[in-house]
Write a structure and sequence with these properties.
With 126 residues, the protein is of the alpha/beta class. The protein contains two helices and seven strands. The protein is 20% helix and 26% strand.
Amino acid sequence: MAVTLDHTIVPAYDKLASAQFFAHIFGLTVKAGQGRFAQVRANDTLTMDFDEQRPVVESIHYAFHITEAEFDAIFGRVTAAGIAYGSGPFDNENGAINTRRAGRGFYFKDPNGHLLEVMTTPETGS
């Protein structure tokens, strides 16, 4: 049996604003509907469910494997928005991208302080 992550809860000060930020940066849309969560479908099997929590107690690291074209688009939106980015989890504001595992990647923070990572070569080395 393959294990697939179906959804994850993203704690947020403002669930709708946080979902809209994420959707904009990643080129996605906030799922219409009602309910407790502001939901963004990341792919065919995963939704990011934004939930208001005050205070947001800790920063969570979310890492995403993306294509080269998606990298260029996301990087463009991050830089156009003036969001600080960097090449590593502890260097997430050094203005550089990394080239680990023969791919490209970078880190940046969302409005809640969560650390987002995008990479063109997966950590799992597939």
